[in-house]
Structures are given as structure tokens and as C-alpha cells.
Amino acid sequence: MFARTERLLLRPAWEEDASALHAAIGDESVVRNLARAPWPYRVEDARSFVGTARDPALPDFLIFCRTHGSPRLIGGIGLQRDDSGAVELGYWIGRSFWGLGFATEAARAMVGMADDSLRIPALVAGHFLDNPASANVLYKLGFRPTGEVVMRRSLARGREVACARFVREAGAEGEIANPALAA
Fold it and tell me: Which residues does 111 contact at the CB level (< 8 Å), separation at least 6?
């Protein structure tokens, strides 16, 4: 399974992606916002990630910016089951590509697959409270806060971190902006 957007190609990780993955995610400011990625992020971690078997029913992609030459790896996005069995959306974008709308564009494609092809009735997601940019992406996709803030382990930080939980029912429309910022 692959997905294309106006600017992006989303595809599964291949063994030959390990070096580019390491270069794209090997930044503490990126990894600290993820639950399962270690810091420091080593080339061996990238090799392990690309070699890990995935649930074939839930897409897990690397995000590539489509260029006139070879596509450039800029992030990752996927769906997986959380501890409760709910399908969770997760994503990251390399720091040099922050603020360009790539996370929203990739996540919109993934949510579209969840709605149309996979027929997933609801998605969950979360963001560490010190990463409000991720909340903005979730609002744009139709996710709504559950009102629940849980402590979630950040492997890179080596500790539990406050995480706001969100949910999105299939077909939900997004908002233009985070309502917390509109006040």
C-alpha cells in the first residue's frame, strides 16, 4: 500500500531507507516528541525499525517529499493498535521541514485511507503537552480532545510525560485552527 499527495509519497520502509531514516529522525527535538523512539537515535535503531514486521492491516509509512529527482525522506506516519486495542495515528516530521504543512498533508492522506479503504470507525491520537504543534495537526483532521491527559512514557526522555488524548470518528471534518489558540 502506498499513498500520494500533491507534494508527498507515503510508502513502507525498505532496508535501503535506514541511512536516510537515521539522518531525518536523528535530532533530539524530533525524537523527544515520540513515545517509542530512543535518544540518541542510532543507525542500528533505524535498521531495526525498517526490519520490523508490521501489521499488514494497518499502514506504517515513511514520508517522502516528491522532488524533480529522488524523493527525500522527511518523516514517518502510521496506524497501530494502542494498549486498549484502539487504532492510533502517530507521525513525525524532520525539524527542517516543520511549519510547511507536511504533517497535516500526510496525516490527511492516512486518515482518508482509514476512512475509505480500511473502514476504521474511529482513530485515537495523542500529543505531549509541550508539543502544541501536534495538537494543531489533529484539530485540522477532525480529531477532538477527549478531555483526558495521561502520563505516557517517552523513551527518548526516559520518563513519563503528560499526553493529551484525542479521538476522531470516521468522516469527521477538521477545523481550521486549534480552538485553544483562538481565544
Answer: 89, 123, 141, 142, 168
Contact 110, 80 (CB under 8 A): no
**pLDDT over 80 (residue 177):** no
Alpha helices in 88-149 (DSSP H): 102-116, 132-140
Amino acid at 157: R
At 18 the three-state DSSP class reads helix
Tell me if 54 sits within 8 A of 81, measured CB to CB: no
- Cβ burial of 63 (10 Å; 0-12, 13-18, 19+) is buried
Q: What is the pLDDT of residues 83-110, one digit of tens each?
A: 899 999 999 999 999 999 999 999 999 9
Q: Is the dihedral of CA 153, 14, 111, 84 positive or negative?
A: negative
Measured distance CA(13)–CA(157) in Å, rounded? 25
The cell for 46 is: 533505524
What the block records as the C-alpha cell of 137 is 495537526
Cell of 20: 536516510
